[in-house]
Amino acid sequence: MLTLLNFLSEPTINLIYIMLICGIVGGIGNTLKGTTCNGVVLSKNICLGIIASFTVPLFLSLVSSDIINSLYIKKSGTDDKIIGQSVNYLIFSGFCIIASYASLDFLNNITGRVIQKIEKIEKKLDSIEGKQEVTNKTIKTIALAAEDKTQITDQELIQFQTPAYTEIMKSIKNKEDKFRLLDLIKTEVNQDNTEIEKKIEILKNNNLVKEIELGKGEKAVALTGEAEKIMK
């Protein structure tokens, strides 16, 4: 009930009245310009005029107009703002009159615009899904490549059981075994960033760490199963 009351605010009611009146006036004008004028044609044109008039807010949204939004700004009491809102009501009325006067052409035009908008959104979504699919495949390929490397022996693991390496691996490790941003690791590990990058590269080469590249040059790392032997 509260939502309905919020919807039926003063600007909304004013806009509904304008669209109804302009739809009727435009429908009558559409009838008068024709050669046939009878009750059936008049009723048809008035109905189409009202329908076209009620699609004007959609049209204004498609062309990124802020006329309607400006009508919902609360008046501060200044004459300039009140006059500005009155002018916008007149402009909106003009749009409604034009739309209802050329109802069929206007409705066909706006239908075409909506379809184009939907097609653009669908293409954008397909593009995003395609990029996501490529990213997922890349992550999977990198993970599989890391797992396919020759397993390191227990003797070779000993060289990485130093405080410097274990500090880095403890920062990378998390309960969910998810990738962590390399920049975040650098803030947690008390070592020079260059040294951290060198050690991570060595860990990667020995199948103890796997790395992926995210957008904008960001990198993320995660431990492999071999690294868990050191962490125990």
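Above is the first protein from milestone M3; the second protein from the same milestone is given next.
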Amino acid sequence: MAQISDAIRKTPELKGKWKSTIQPVQQIVAERFQRLTLKDIPFKKPEPVQDAEIDQIQRHLQKLFPDLDLSKLQKLHTPKSSLYQS
């Protein structure tokens, strides 16, 4: 996934092709989720996160933690941000 993300950042026109390629896989996963139940209660199908939502979260994070590297939000990298830790 990291390689795909890097390629899309370098070549933005790949994004549309990637979305059209991954759409059938998302559909299969959604159909599988719709068949699942827990104590006779059906699972709700998760919706893919939209780019606008990701941008909004990143803007909020940037305001709250200006020293946080938004390209590295894994637990391994967050201790490097003193504001995030406090």
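Note on the second protein: Helices lie at 2-10, 14-35, 51-64, 82-85.
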